[in-house]
Amino acid sequence: MVAHGIRPAYGHLVNIGGRSLATAAPATLDPVVYIAICLVSGAWAGFIGRAKGSSWFIWFVIGAVVPILGVVAALLYRFESEELRKQCPTCGKVVPLYDALCTRCGTELDFPEVAIEPEAAARAQR
Ligand SMILES: [Zn+2]
Which of 113, 112, 91, 115 is nearest to 102 (CA)? Predict the structure, then answer.
């Protein structure tokens, strides 16, 4: 009576033990592999960031701290070098077209008749 119940239960337990051992090993991520992923992700984010006219180092850090997502952020980020620009009439600083005040001298800026082409476009023509 008792022996009939034990045999299937015992076999069931062994199967569960075998499965949990098999799945536990690949679940633990090697720290070296993780660091390698961070560095590769950082390099990609930095490369994309520099191509869009931003700082290589800043995007490398973002890509390394937030792997994969940092690269996606670099791809989606709207870089200032792609914006139209205008020049401050007081101090001559080139600022983004949407700025209402000069970031250097504080002069109120009107919407210009002729905008300066984006930095990225100017670089591509050279
Ligand atoms: Zn100014």
Answer: 91
